[in-house]
């Protein structure tokens, strides 16, 4: 790995950083992890000494982070550390005083970030070391994904993995020379303490600074070469059929037959993989592999929904499962997971017709509307995993979500009439969801012993089996369980709630607009589409600068529910544009309001201007000016917990070409896919969303045109027919007969399409040829889904 481990050991006597969550066979990246193990020693290390426990009296004098808006930075505003936010003031100080920069990156709902803050950054002695010998800089990775990506690339290249918190030491010129993830405060038998690391780096900076600088430059140069993504001499992207089959085979090899999913513990939802499998099924549905792909995706979604990774009481999904059964989760809830999973479950309903999946999708969106929504239409970022079991107590992971048998018995004492044996509502619920007196959490999943006697609700039996066990009617059992869960939900409201990260990110809001728009369209629920519309209005009102045409990355909840911005504003990154454009395209297809399509086109133009690599193809993650000073300017090349912005952009460009006929966007899409050819060929399973875009580009996009009045019943019936069928490679266009409308100006052929006998009429167009006119939704369905 760039030969960096050798100099880390020989120059610093620091071993490579380890990672507690092993990379899976699908090549999961740091974006899939929120914690990492300590640096393990491969060379003798001096002891850190004793007497450096955190101060028992909290330091209440704020540092300069008190002036920031980020919830994560504000969590560190009372550390006894002279923290700086990322910016020129910190860099100038490092250069003037000739000190290394200590960069610490995390986010506000990260469990192991909390641990390191409590153990090390609240420690008075460690605080003095960081303040006197380093220029210490705190970064919220969700505010500055560019900074996070650059230095995570270094940590991953010089160690066995990455995660958060991420801690990296930089030269005053921002080049990294040592990095790791979570450090405990003191040395252990097999691990190096954070204080020891600080003392050794201080010593080496004084004695061997020139060597550090030389090695830092060498590693940076190697990273530049390694991270380059370019078309080179290639003219065209690889064969979609080949990439599709290779990606499917790699997923098939790693598939868990019993529980679903594609890795050993920990298990992540990874919706991009499920989306790929659905697309693969559609194009191979008459083959054994196609059936297999559908089964893998549907079974995974069902096992996840039955498992403890889903919050059965309050709905929504937790971040990941610590075991392969989807049973005990890491309890954090992220907006981007809810957004993507709502779409995945809606697609599962389209494909299977099973209302189990649509119910899960509706539950996700119900949770977001209740817990992650700003009154003005925006969406908050996350809810923490940790909360106090009772007011005034120290926060514990999962405390808000777990239950004892005693609690459930007290809340649900009512007898169940008609059962074949004495039974209470509580006993019925505990049987169905696997609660036990001793608790259903293994000690191996609870190393701190915080969850002894506690239970995570996870479906153990089908409704039919539970009903048969007690001689009850299935619908009666369904009603009893739903009533019991509602009582648990009401009781849970009285517990201290987990911390809410009320920061709002354009990218994740774009994903959530898609979540509401797609689910609302599939289920025919205007109420859900209205949430998407309000989300888009929020983005345009609060996160868009009309004068420059640029998106802002963040905004924040102020006092009284107002919306605030940092000063100067944090401008958007590639993912903000890509995800918002996708959301707007999905919202247009759901609502047929062309204003959203027009805004999507303008944002795409801005994205092309700010991020497009005219020489190598594809998009950089950040603007050139915004990332000035960073040693790398990267193109994200992995679909992980969130899709790569380049993968999403490839889909957006195809759809925009379908909506407008502008050849430039198709050409850009081909250049982008060509630039990523080598990455796809090498590990297609790391880019399933891009492989899906490659397939769409090499197939024929369907333009489904509905001629009719947007508000008319017959128009709505045809539109709903289109939404009921799973057709990922299409654009849905409403032609209202107005030759001056936005879409009529973009696509002149629309003026040739007529309503049949004054009825709403559908045409399915491919390769510049359209089908015969169709007025019957059933006939349209047959044509779309032969």
UniProtKB/TrEMBL annotation:
Residues 23-62 are annotated as: Disordered. GO terms for cellular component: extracellular region. It comes from the Eukaryota. It holds the Pfam family Thioredox_DsbH. InterPro entries: 6-hairpin_glycosidase_sf, 6hp_glycosidase-like_sf, Ssp411, Ssp411-like_TRX, Thioredoxin-like_sf. SUPFAM superfamilies: Six-hairpin glycosidases, Thioredoxin-like. This is Spermatogenesis-associated protein 20. PANTHER family: SPERMATOGENESIS-ASSOCIATED PROTEIN 20.
């Amino acid at each position: 790995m760039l030969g960096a481990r050798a100099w880390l050991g020989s120059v610093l006597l620091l071993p490579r950083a380890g990672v507690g969550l092993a990379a899976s066979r699908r090549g999961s990246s740091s974006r899939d992890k929120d914690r990492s193990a300590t640096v393990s020693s491969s060379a003798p290390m001096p002891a850190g000494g004793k007497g450096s426990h955190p101060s028992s009296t909290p330091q209440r004098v704020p540092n300069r982070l008190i002036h920031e808006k980020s919830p994560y930075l504000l969590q560190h505003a009372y550390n006894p550390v002279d923290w700086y936010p990322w910016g020129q003031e910190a860099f100038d100080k490092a250069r003037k005083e000739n000190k290394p920069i200590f960069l610490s990156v995390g986010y506000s709902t990260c469990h192991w970030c909390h641990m390191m803050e409590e153990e090390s950054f609240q420690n008075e002695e460690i605080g003095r070391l960081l303040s006197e010998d380093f220029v210490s800089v705190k970064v919220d990775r969700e505010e500055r994904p560019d900074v996070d990506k650059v230095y995570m690339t270094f940590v991953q290249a010089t160690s066995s993995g990455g995660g958060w918190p991420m801690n990296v030491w930089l030269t005053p010129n921002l080049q990294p020379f040592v990095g790791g993830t979570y450090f405990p405060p003191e040395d252990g038998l097999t691990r190096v303490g954070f204080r020891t690391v600080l003392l050794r780096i201080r010593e080496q900076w004084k004695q061997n600074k020139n060597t550090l600088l030389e090695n830092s430059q060498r590693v940076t140069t190697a990273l530049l070469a390694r991270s380059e993504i370019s078309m080179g001499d290639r003219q065209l992207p690889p064969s979609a059929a080949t990439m599709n089959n290779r990606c499917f085979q790699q997923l098939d090899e790693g598939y868990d037959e019993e529980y679903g999913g594609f890795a050993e513990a920990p298990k992540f939802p990874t919706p991009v993989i499920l989306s790929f499998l659905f697309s693969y099924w559609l194009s191979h549905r008459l083959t054994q592999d196609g059936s297999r792909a559908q089964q893998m995706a549907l079974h995974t979604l069902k096992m996840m929904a039955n498992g403890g990774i889903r919050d059965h009481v309050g709905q929504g999904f937790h971040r990941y499962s610590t075991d392969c059964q989807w049973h005990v989760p890491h309890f954090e809830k992220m907006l981007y997971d809810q957004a993507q999973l709502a779409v995945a479950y809606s697609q599962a309903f389209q494909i299977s017709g099973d209302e189990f999946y649509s119910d899960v999708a509706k539950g996700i969106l119900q949770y977001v509307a209740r817990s992650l929504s700003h009154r003005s239409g925006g969406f908050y970022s996350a809810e923490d995993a940790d909360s106090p079991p009772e007011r005034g107590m120290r926060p514990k992971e999962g405390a808000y979500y777990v239950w004892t048998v005693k609690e459930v018995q007290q809340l649900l004492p009512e007898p169940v009439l008609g059962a074949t044996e004495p039974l209470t509502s509580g006993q019925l619920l505990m049987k169905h969801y696997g609660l036990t007196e001793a608790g259903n959490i293994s000690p191996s999943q609870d190393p701190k012993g915080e969850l002894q006697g506690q239970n995570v609700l996870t479906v153990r039996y089908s409704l039919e089996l539970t009903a048969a066990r007690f001689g009850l009617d299935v619908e009666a059992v369904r009603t009893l369980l739903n009533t019991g869960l509602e009582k648990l939900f009401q009781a849970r409201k009285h517990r201290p709630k987990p911390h809410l990260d009320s920061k709002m990110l354009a990218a994740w809001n774009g994903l959530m607009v898609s979540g509401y728009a797609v689910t609302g369209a599939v289920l025919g629920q205007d109420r859900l589409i209205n949430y998407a519309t309000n989300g888009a209005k929020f983005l345009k009102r609060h996160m868009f600068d009309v004068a420059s045409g640029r998106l802002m990355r963040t905004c924040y909840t102020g006092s009284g529910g107002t919306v605030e911005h940092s000063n100067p504003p944090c401008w958007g990154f590639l993912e903000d544009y890509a995800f918002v454009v996708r959301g707007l395209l999905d919202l247009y297809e759901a609502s047929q309001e062309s204003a959203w399509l027009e805004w999507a086109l303008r944002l795409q133009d801005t994205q092309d201007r700010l991020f497009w690599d005219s020489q190598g193809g594809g998009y950089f993650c950040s603007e050139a000016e915004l990332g000035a000073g960073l040693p790398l300017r990267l193109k994200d090349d992995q679909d992980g917990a969130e899709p790569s912005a380049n993968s999403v952009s490839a889909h957006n460009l195809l759809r925009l070409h379908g909506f407008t006929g502008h050849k430039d966007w198709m050409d850009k899409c081909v250049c982008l896919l060509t630039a990523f050819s080598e990455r796809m060929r090498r590990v297609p399973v790391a880019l399933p969303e891009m492989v899906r875009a490659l397939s769409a580009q090499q197939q024929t996009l369907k333009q489904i045109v509905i001629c009719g009045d947007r508000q008319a019943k017959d128009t709505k019936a045809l539109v709903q027919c289109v939404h009921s069928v799973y057709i990922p490679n299409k654009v849905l266009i409403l032609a209202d007969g107005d030759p001056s409308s936005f879409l009529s100006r973009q696509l002149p052929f629309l003026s040739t399409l007529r309503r049949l006998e004054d009825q709403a009429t559908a045409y399915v167009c491919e390769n510049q040829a359209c089908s015969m006119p169709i007025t019957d939704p059933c006939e349209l369905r047959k044509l779309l889904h032969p």
